[in-house]
Write a structure and sequence with these properties.
Number of domains: 2
Largest sheet: none
Number of helices: 13
Shape: globular
Distance between the termini: 41 Å
Order of helices and strands: HHHHHHHHHHHHH
Length: 335
């Protein structure tokens, strides 16, 4: 559409109109299917519960604004310090990572309601068991995806747009690492949202936004584009290394902070091992044909990290649970 009209404002207005029309249609369908929503003769919510909800909503506002600033300012810093050309090149990579992340977040986010139901039972042992399963699944998905991003993205961009649109390998490395780090926040975020923990840690996303802004501006002068993303990684690892254990992990699971730290560092070590192993194999297995190289890289990313993960975790409870989910999914599709 943009190619045909060459009018970006028109495209934005069209997107706005379509989103408005979508919301109106959803509202009408909801009113028709669930008429009790408009029923005004309802019992008023207990004042104590209402105050708690309002308090948590105020806290959630801090999280929304902080998250917007963290991920929104990166693009502004890149375009301001490095120019629109670099921002344009990076946007191609961002499109790939955002699309992949949106899919994975839907998979992870789908378990939030069930986690909320589980938390109402206040069974700390069972809650921790679910956390271990969810963390393992996220680790598998995001480590495998991050490795794929690093190895497959360059051949894909070359096929799609050409060599002139490639970023350096160093930048791509930081993109892949950032994808993994942000993805490994998902399990704790699910439990945080399910438990309604927003007010207690309301200043954490604000601190993250400010720290990320300062770190990105400082690092971009020395490392360029990679510095912006590295600033985001550092802020995430430091702040959420403090926030998640204190406000979510310890209160919900009644475990020591050291348990969380050891868990995350263990997964990080294994990720680095998988990453290096796959990159080494990919480096030695390289062909000159662009299409052949692209397909070969995909095959390598499908086999090496997954084979190593199976080898390392084949006897673990988390792997057996993950395997049962995958088997159940295939059985459902085949029936």
């Amino acid at each position: 559409m943009l190619i045909l009209t060459h009018n970006y404002i028109l495209i934005l207005l069209l997107v706005l109109f379509l989103r408005l029309a979508e919301n109106i249609m959803i509202s009408r369908v909801a009113d028709r299917r669930y008429p009790y929503i408009k029923d005004k003769k309802v019992q008023l919510l207990d004042k104590k519960i209402a105050r708690r909800l309002i308090k948590q909503m105020k806290g959630q506002a801090f999280h929304v604004i902080g998250g917007f600033v963290v991920f929104g300012t990166d693009n502004m810093i890149i375009s301001s310090f490095l120019g629109l050309t670099v921002m344009g090149l990076y946007s191609n990579y961002l499109l790939i990572t955002n699309t992949l992340n949106s899919f994975l977040l839907q998979v992870v986010g789908s378990v939030t309601p069930s986690v909320g139901d589980l938390l109402t039972e206040k069974n700390g042992k069972e809650n921790f068991k679910v956390h271990q399963h969810l963390t393992f699944i996220c680790f598998w998905l995001y480590s495998f995806s991050a490795i794929g991003i690093y190895i497959v993205t360059q051949p894909f961009i070359e096929l799609w747009l050409g060599k002139n649109y490639l970023l350096s390998g160093g930048v791509l490395l930081v993109v892949a690492l950032n994808f993994y780090v942000q993805g490994m926040r998902s399990p704790m975020t699910v439990f945080q949202q399910a438990a309604g923990i927003f007010y207690e840690n309301r200043f954490v996303p604000v601190a993250e936004a400010i720290t990320n802004l300062i770190a990105s501006i400082v690092l971009i002068k020395y490392l360029g584009l990679a510095g912006v993303l590295l600033g985001t990684i550092i802020c995430t690892m430091i702040l959420y290394g403090y926030s998640f254990p204190k406000y979510t992990f310890v209160p919900i699971f009644k475990k020591k902070v050291s348990v969380y730290v050891i868990e995350q560092l263990s997964y990080l070590f294994i990720f680095v091992l998988l990453f290096i192993s796959t990159v080494v194999v990919s480096h030695f297995l390289d062909v000159s044909n662009v299409w052949g190289n692209f397909i070969l890289k995909i095959v390598i990313c499908l086999i090496i990290p997954n084979a190593l993960l199976i080898l390392l975790f084949r006897k673990s409870r988390e792997f057996r649970y993950f395997r049962s989910l995958v088997n159940g999914l295939f059985s459902k599709n085949n029936s």
